[in-house]
Amino acid sequence: GERMMTRTRYAMERMTELPGVSIPFGSSHHVNEFVADLGPSGRTVAEVNAALLDRGYLGGADLSRAFPALGQCALYAVTEVRTQAEIDGLVEVIAEVLS
């Protein structure tokens, strides 16, 4: 459990480094999931996820239909089997997609 929480927090912190991405509810405790708002980037979750898939990465669950009030938010999950290098890779690819 601690490993999941640590890696989730790491992923959240890395995502906040990306221009156009914010982490709503970021000050709350998270176990293995968090919400990332891609709206400020001007891209939809569907667009970002399609570009990620083209690069071999599975994006976050698109929350825009189920929770339209959240806008272009995605739910990302991090488990204990994900390494820091894998998280870094995802963040780097998201940065590439958003640029």
Would you kindly provide a brief summary of this structure?
The protein has 99 residues and is of the alpha+beta class. Helix content is 40%, strand content 12%. Helix 1 runs parallel beside helix 3.
Main attributes of the structure:
globular; 3-stranded antiparallel β-sheet; 3 helices; alpha+beta; 99 residues
Oligomer: single chain
Q: Biggest sheet: strands side by side, in what order?
A: 1-3-2
% residues in beta strands: 5-15%
Decide which structural class fits the backbone: alpha+beta
Give the low-confidence spans.
Answer: none
| Radius of gyration, whole Å | 12 Å
Give the helices and strands as they follow along the chain: HEHEEH
Q: Note the gap between the termini.
A: 34 Å
Provide structural commentary.
Helices cover 40% and strands 12% of the residues. The chain has 99 residues and is α+β, with helices and mostly antiparallel strands. Helix 1 (2-16) runs parallel beside helix 3 (84-98). The protein is globular.
